[in-house]
Please model this.
Amino acid sequence: MTGLDASFLYLETPSSHMHVASLMVLDPSEADEPVTLEKVKEVYGSRLHLAPPFRRRLVEVPFGLHHPLWIEDPDFDIDYHVRSTALPSPGSDAQLRTLVGRLVAQPLDRSRPLWEVWMIEGLEGGKVGCLSKVHHAAIDGASGNELTVAMLDLSPEIAEHPGGDDWEPDPVPSDIELLGYAATSLARQPVRVAKAGLRTTGAAFALRRRNRESPRLAPPSPFSAPRTELNVPITGRRSFGTTSLSLPAVKAVKKAAGCTVNDVVLALCAGSLRRYLAADGDLPDTPLVAMVPVSVRSDDERDSLGNRVTTTFTSLATDVDDPLARLQVIHDCMVDVKEQQQAIGADTLTDWAEFAAPAVAGRAAKLYSRVNVAGRHRPLFNVTISNVPGPPFSLYSIGAHMEAIYPIGPIADGVGPNMTVMSYRDSLDFGVLACPDVLPDVDRLTDGLHEALADLVEATGVSDDQVDALRSAT
Model:
């Protein structure tokens, strides 16, 4: 396990669970047979070779001397990972979101492969929900997307995927073997530290030179975010909100404003957050800061799993009243973020994660949470916003048509909600995870996304004909 992968284990506390998730809403009306728990197990079981993390579990190194290892679990049992639950029929969307919030609040069992799938029956109209949870130590957004697609089909016919018979479990290594591995790896660390130091020094000089030459202000730095009601210590409870926006409308705004779809997504979240905080009388004079995960996965690493991601910070320009001017500020900041990332280099920000001491890092994270340190300093950032591109065509799972897929990212002490979006067909499906003890009405935030899009459509002068033309092209 890499240091970056392991860092998501160390950051986990009783109130902050580091798994990512997604909720699929399935319509089984076209399916050849009913979507049952046994059928879900059968299909997932036949495709486990397409998703290697699903049969791997952790092995901890004694005394926390080094990062854990992955092994092919000799005790793997799919019955533990694929489960079912139900809403009182006919279950509403609101009831589904409440149930998903409760299921997401449950940590994954580290003694088994770090994933679960929950089949949720009883939805209105005979629909079925499918909630998948995978620990962030195993995947990032891009590789998680690949795993999700591996479990889906292009038609109601369930495709065959041969090749699963080659899997072999690993023996569980002894403590002596684990200590030997740790000693060998630690012996090489001084050389790695020296190389990382040289790369970091070079990146610092490159960044300084770039900031001097840039006519624009540098992107916000960590701990420069203003404090709001959303940036306080959290509990282990979770609330979940969903909504879907028109992707053609977003693309029309993007075209009219001369920016990117990701810029528009950030502006939508900014508009919603601004409206939410202003209604509570808590909108700060300085702009909110978003943490935006960025994949640094190269073409050669496209099929690799684990985490190849870095974090960037951008202004959400929530101090700007005009929505179009706000979008322009966000666009300019993201241009600087990309230039800064190129100056630093893809690996510089992840190199130092290799040298974290597991025993120290884990205890430090739990102590930070237990004594509410997040309430005693400025936020590292205000909100997490992640945009994951998805397929523009229909997909099917267990023979049922996938109507929508709502991604779910983790939240942590002091850094507010997680607003993650995935494109699917002609929609942008938003999943918003929050702590109800901090943000009691997550639906206000998702409703605000629609209002923010309406504001941008009006500000850019986008017409219905332009949106329809882009919808037809899609």
